[in-house]
Structure formats: structure tokens, C-alpha cells
């Protein structure tokens, strides 16, 4: 099998190819011949030493893949051989052969390409947790989606449209035409205008019921200020920590945290607001729950409101280039690797 390995913490050149024997599925497992691999910003953070819970290098990154089952272990029905699946894994997805627990390999929905299948699990599960499970989004709400042009941002646009909520997206101006087509009601380039003031204007001075933020740092503080009473701030990343590569990873994480609001239960109570976090990588002990979310999202594909969008596919051997592309924020939607 071929795989891409993070050999040490640092830039994209820390990714390197490696050959290894094909793994065999154990009890309750199945093996997938991988057709596409999802690339996530969490992989970038892990490569830079900024991702809590990531293994020490060397390790194979990646959380999601699609492909065809070619072998099963004891306890798994042989009828699964030959089926096309979307799989979740705790690292190890940057490969052309993947072994996962059978429960973590779900049927590839009809009508999706393998690349679209690989774009589905992490982004849409994160978005579902942010908007529906913890964000309690309703049709009467306004939700501000930061980094709306990313894969998780587009997933949130799909889910918010399904709920019926109004979306205000923040993104670079060149991404706005596409995001309007995807359902954003209002768009803001935060580098060109005061986005908090604009949100206040759009909501008649009230603020937003829900704001989601993958960047962290100062944006956490600004988002907290932009909440309406009973509003919720959902945080799901610290990508701003990648901005100072010369500093050690822990120092960059501390800087990002210090840029956020100082939270105290009394302050939250007095403002009638809430702050919560989503970290899909820390949900492995809740597999039954997340697989329930996944089944609802897979059904959403057939109902035509889940529409994973692939921006660009890179060969597996060009994983370093895919990381550089993602770090430069050049993507509109998902970046995938194709073995």
C-alpha cells in the first residue's frame, strides 16, 4: 500500500510518501480500496503540531475516505465485499488501502462520486453538530458563518437552508458569487468592512442568534460581541494559530486563546448568551451518536439538500501541495486526494 506520512512538525514538505504491506482486517473490521481521501484543516494543524490528540510523528493523517470494500474480518458479513462506502477513521486515511471498524463504513449515497463521498463525513458532521445539535438553529434565526467558503462553511450553508434560517457568510470577496449561488443571503468581506457593525445593521441592531467560527483568536471576541441575547457562539477551530509559523505550536495556541473573550458564568448569564465548542476528533467515544447524525445526512443526499462540493482533487503523492493550497485559503469547498 502507498501512504503519505507526516514525518515531523513543520511545513507541507514534512509530508512524505511511504510503502507498507497491505493491512488485513481484524474482527469486526473491513478493508477499503481507497478512491478518494478528504483533506481537512485539522490535518494541517496536526502537521504543524497544533492539533490536540494527534499522534507524535511519524504518522499517517486523515479522518475520512471513500472506496470499495475488498475484504472483511471475522464477524462482518461477506456481502459487504464489493460495496462502495464512505469511511471515518481516527487518522490513517492518507493511503490507498484502509482498514476501519465495519460500523464506521457507511454506504456511498447513490449519485455521489467517490470524491464527493470523501467530502461528506467530517465537514457535514461538524456542521450538523454546530447548527442542529448544539446550535439549536431555527427558521427564525440569523446565523453568521465565518469562513463560509470552506468545506465546513458550505456544509453549514446546506444545513441552514434546510432548516430555513438566514445565513450571513464571511469570506473573501472573490468567493461571494459562488456563495450566493449556494444560498447565503448576505455576504461580508471582513478585510474590507467592519463585519460586526454590518451584522448589527442586518439584524436591526439585535445581533445574530448563532455564530460559528473556525479561526479563533480575536475573531472569537468579535463574534461574542455580535451575539443577540439568547445567541450562541460555536467555535470549532483555531486556524488563526497557523499565522505565525516561526513560533512553537503551544505558544501559537496560547496566543490564539488569549485573543478570545474572557468568559465567566455570571457574564454569560447577564448577557443571556452561550458559548460552546465542537471537536469531532474528540467524539470517538460517542460513535453511536455521530453515526446517527451521519445517517440523517446521508438521507439528506437523497433529499437533495446535502450537496458536497469538491473544489480540487490532488494525486495522493501531492499531499504536500494540497496542504499548501488549503493553507493559502484558495479553496471553495473540499480538497481531496486521489490515490
From TrEMBL:
SUPFAM superfamilies: GroES-like, NAD(P)-binding Rossmann-fold domains. Keywords: NADP, Oxidoreductase. It comes from the Bacteria. Residues 10-337 form the Enoyl reductase (ER) domain. Pfam families: ADH_N (PF08240), ADH_zinc_N_2 (PF13602). GO terms for molecular function: NADPH binding; oxidoreductase activity, acting on NAD(P)H. InterPro entries: ADH-like_N, ER, GroES-like_sf, NAD(P)-bd_dom_sf. Residues 1-28 are annotated as: Disordered. This is Zinc-binding dehydrogenase. It comes from Georgenia yuyongxinii.
